[in-house]
Write a structure and sequence with these properties.
The protein is mainly alpha-helical and about 140 residues long. The protein folds into 2 domains: about 90 residues; about 35 residues, no CATH class. It has 3 helices and 2 strands; from the N terminus they run H-H-E-E-H. Strands 1-2 form a two-stranded antiparallel sheet. It is elongated, with a radius of gyration of 22 Å. It starts with a helix and ends in a 9-residue tail after the last helix.
């Protein structure tokens, strides 16, 4: 009888772990969606500024060029935050990217299913370190 209870307990624990993993991944995916919307907005703003400069018959003012440079820095920052969140999602879901072809495979796989490259154990350490990267509070 205790074997049945132990089995039920194990099933319940595994189910809870899977639910928690799905919840964490979903939260991060929502953050990625929000960042992608911010990125689109930044691209639109950048495009409008460049268009304004191109349509202006006089040379671009220093202020406009500085504004464009600041927007590109913001865009780069958002893109980096998205990349970090996507790597964290993959890690939570037990996935890694092949360093040769970029294909996403399960962490437990010894070889990439797309290109056949051997996935070394040190690559898992890289994902452990990426998981510890600090993310601004609004992203998680």
């Amino acid at each position: 009888m205790t074997d049945i209870f132990d089995t039920i307990k194990d099933i319940a624990l595994n189910t809870a772990k899977k639910a928690d993993t799905g919840y964490k991944a979903s939260r991060l995916k929502l953050s990625v969606i929000a960042l992608n919307k911010m990125l689109e907005s930044q691209y639109r703003e950048l495009g409008a500024a460049v268009y304004k400069i191109c349509k202006n018959e006089e040379a671009a003012s220093r202020e406009e060029c500085e504004r464009i440079a600041a927007m590109t820095v913001q865009i780069d920052g958002i893109r980096k935050r998205i990349a970090v969140l996507e790597r964290r999602i993959e890690y939570i879901l037990g996935l890694v990217r092949c360093p040769d072809c970029g294909n996403t495979v399960k962490m437990k796989n010894a070889y990439c299913s797309a290109c056949g490259r051997r996935l070394a154990a040190e690559e898992e350490d890289v994902f452990e370190n990426e998981n510890q990267m600090t993310i601004p509070k609004e992203d998680v």
